[in-house]
Fold:
Amino acid sequence: MKIAVPTETDKTEPRVAATPETVKKFIALGAEVTVQAGAGAGSRITDADYEGAGATIAKTAPPMLKAADIVLKVRRPSATEVKNLVSGAILVGALDPFGNDEDVKALAESGIDAFTMEFMPRITRAQSMDVLSSQANLAGYQSIIDAASNFGRAFPMMMTAAGTVPAARVFVMGAGVAGLQAIATARRLGAVVTATDVRPAAKEQVESLGAKFIAVEDDEFRQAETSGGYAKEMSKEYQAKQADLIAAHIAKQDVVVTTALIPGRPAPKLVSKAMVAAMKPGSVLVDLAVERGGNVEGAKPGEVVDVDGVKIVGYLNVAGRIAASASALYARNLYAFVETMIDKEKKALAIDWDDELIKATNLTRDGKVVHPAFAEKGG
Ligand code: NAD
Structure:
């Protein structure tokens, strides 16, 4: 059982799919692990660290990819990487398949059995494999660190001999995994925190973290959650009522962090140009949804935009900005999943194709696109 961990080919991706900790665990399961030289550099892991854990270091990717039974990745492989993979190889990563049908087809045509971690069901057994949660949690933390470093003022109230500095007012829009961590982090830094969400269940979670919940709590709000626990797209009427409430609130905030997403839809626009214009100069907005279209009007992917003294922060790959921690958790998520594919006694691959985690995440198999969300589109 040969496992390959290549350096991510996307230059903007500092994370890595295995750490010395998970390399050791894979070796204990009977695997041979090869890591490409420099693969861990963006996450503060040296080649020597990997060697110390028992991995072999490969100077270049092609030979190790050609020899691999399992390839661990953060992002979808490049066309060159796919060419180097052999038919029957297993690929595991956050492959971001939506909107990338051609790449999914290419994986199938190369005979690769590809598994995408974002499709992991959110059930108890798979919690340790949930890359969306592990990365969103860190992104939520980092959003507040980024807000604080762009703010130019202190977050906590400070009573000093020279007088008092007021606490920053932080408003978090979208209280899912990232938003709840943003609330907790802002509270730890001493800010006065408020938050909003369209899911009624979020109210209690927000309040349990010591923040105040702000929302129009009408009948539509009370029913606004899918059976899967995700947000529904709200009616135009609700959005208008909510926007009025939020507009008045935002004008009084120093920092706004937006994290609102609806699965399979563009991010809802929650902060208009007029709302940004109503904020005090020196205020900061951090838009964590910028990769999916953005919650803030005027946010630009990968940029910090200054609108009359109000900064709109649109950093990409925010979990990657805290890469060492992000890789540590991502690698554990991958290990927890790949472990289920291995027969521990025989120390060999033994995939149970009927397992619900395998079925939910398997994109391509035996030359075909097999995932129901893509299968009809080709393969
Ligand atoms: P997400 O990233 O899809 O969305 C982020 C948040 O944005 C959500 O809370 C959503 O309700 C909110 N949102 C959407 N539209 C909005 C709007 N117009 N205004 C304000 N907020 C809006 O969601 P997520 O963070 O991945 O998690 C969603 C839910 O799933 C949460 O309840 C979370 O606790 C739960 N969850 C469960 C598990 C598990 O059981 N294993 C794991 C992770 C998350």
The two ends are 27 Å apart (CA to CA). Residues 122, 127, 130, 132-133, 136, 173-179, 196-199, 202, 229-231, 234, 259-263, 268, 270 surround nicotinamide-adenine-dinucleotide (CB under 6 Å).
